[in-house]
Amino acid sequence: MGNSEEMADHESVADTLRPLLRAAFGPDPGVAFEFWDGSAIRPAGTSHGTLRVRSKEALAHLVWAPGQLGLGRAFVSGTADLDGDIFGMMRALRSSAPHAPGAGITLGPGAVFQAVNAARRLGALGRPPEPPPEEMRTRTGGLHTRRRDAAAISHHYDVGNDFYALVLGPSMTYSCARFAGAGERPDDTVSLADAQRAKHDLICRKLGLDARPGMRLLDVGCGWGSMAIHAAATYDAHVVGVTLSHEQAELARKRVAAEGLSDLVEIRLSDYRDLRGERFDAISSIGMFEHVGSKRAAEYFATVHALLRPEGRLLNHAISAIGGSAMGGRSFVGRYVFPDGELIDVGRVVLAMEDAGFEVRDVESLREHYALTLRGWVANLEQEWDRAVELVGEGRARVWRLYMAASALGFEDGTLGLHQVLGVVPSGDGASGMPATRRAWG
């Protein structure tokens, strides 16, 4: 009888994994752990929920891909699960981790050693398990080439419009909402649909679309057309929306037609780099800049600058991270959610816009608003879980639940930021056409 089998006869899985869990999450993270043999480790105090490890394959994922990628693979594959308040559980696990509080659920060197030792004792060492099929592993072409960008966009967005409708709700808007209220903090009593409408209206007013009817707007990364529809219906703007997602373009055109706005809104399946030579009064880029990358930022801002008339404005609405953060191939988000994505420090965004010829006139953070937005999306997903699994499969539904919950916590603790940066192209004599104060857009 081998050593691992002898251990299994005399020691529970909980006993074997106790040193690993202590190294990874501290002595009492406030989460219960249950294992495939029925053994468990319970917290001394309040429990936020239960982390269920259903098979030793979860441990194998962790050994072969230490850190968040291995943890993510275990959850996506269903060999591990979070049962309870996912926000409370993830916050408890993150805050109790002795190696990097607030930096996400990762594993320090001590925890990796303990994982290998536990895997050996439990017979979990061997060939590496296959990653779940939801993981993107093929990336052809150079980083941020047109072909590779199109593949990355398709991986994330072409998963079914019905699934996105379930998660996003009737607004069909996949970006930070604005929960405007009378108080000093975001008003969580505002509905998600109203908050998205408030965000779109804020952007329209920042861009000056309320100044006169018939202004020409380019919406880069137009999604399912919600911003374009709002600008056309509310301010009589003539809008061109561009996206690389086939499914987004198809539904956006249907939504535009259903609203009777086909004479004002054109949706193109196109790369923003194909727009040279056209002219617009305003450009909105909402939740698209994360796909551009720091090496392409200068080209991006130079391209959109050339598309604007004098006194034309750009509103760049994007997730940011202090010092910048590339979603690399060893990260969960980089493999499952946003391949090749990159979060750029807002300071570098401002400098890149200025280098391209923009005068930056306003920077606003909506960090707390994105936390509320993501919590709303998670609530939608959990409420319609069975339908979501029917639409995209359990693995992909698990990806979304995990990444949206983790992202919400990132916005709450300041690891992630969301900034709207407003720039204008000054005319030859330096005129900007900008209002004197922010009161123009509220």
Gyration radius, rounded: 24 Å
Strand order of the largest sheet: 7-6-5-8-9-13-12
Q: What is the name of the CATH superfamily of the largest domain? A: Vaccinia Virus protein VP39
Rough shape? elongated
* Chain-averaged pLDDT: 88
Low-confidence stretches: 1-8
| DSSP strand count | 13
Question: What can you see in these coordinates?
Answer:
The chain has 17 helices and 13 strands. With 442 residues, the protein is α/β, with parallel strands linked by helices. It has 2 domains: 3-122, Nonspecific Lipid-transfer Protein, Chain A (2-Layer Sandwich), CATH 3.30.1050; 146-440, Rossmann fold, CATH 3.40.50. The strands form 3 sheets. It has a 7-stranded mixed β-sheet with strand order 7-6-5-8-9-13-12, with helices on both faces. α2 (13-25) runs antiparallel to α6 (109-122), α3 packs across α6 (109-122) and α12 crosses α14. The longest helix has 20 residues, at 394-413. It is elongated, with a radius of gyration of 24 Å.
Write the layout of secondary structure elements.
Elements: H1 3-10, H2 13-25, E1 32-35, E2 40-41, E3 49-53, H3 57-64, H4 68-77, E4 80-84, H5 86-96, H6 109-122, H7 146-157, H8 161-168, H9 192-206, E5 216-220, H10 226-235, E6 238-243, H11 246-258, E7 265-269, E8 280-286, H12 297-306, E9 308-320, E10 325-326, H13 332-336, E11 342-343, H14 346-355, E12 359-365, H15 367-383, H16 385-392, H17 394-413, E13 417-424
Helix pairs in contact: 2-6, 3-4, 3-6, 4-17, 5-17, 9-10, 12-14, 15-17, 16-17
